[in-house]
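Researcher: Checking consistency across runs. Here is Uma2 family endonuclease again:
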Amino acid sequence: MMTVVEIKFESWQLSDEQFFQLCQDNRDLRLERSAKGDLIIMPPTGGETGNSNAGITAQLWLWNNLHKLGVVFDSSTGFKLPN
């Protein structure tokens, strides 16, 4: 089983542009930032989880395509959320 790795950045902050470039330079890693700005390296999901997630995304996309109430993204989409 793979575990999440969290790297603390207490002495300096990674800007949005620097974080984006870090993600671009390391496309094979699933990188996230916490609300505190710490870097989180997520392990890949297993086959069972990936299959389950794909099914949920497909159902949500089909429902939304019928009702036209918004936009559906997969779990690899990057967002900057307000704090």
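Researcher: Does this match what you'd expect to see?
Model: One thing to look at in this run: The helical segments are 16-25, 47-67.
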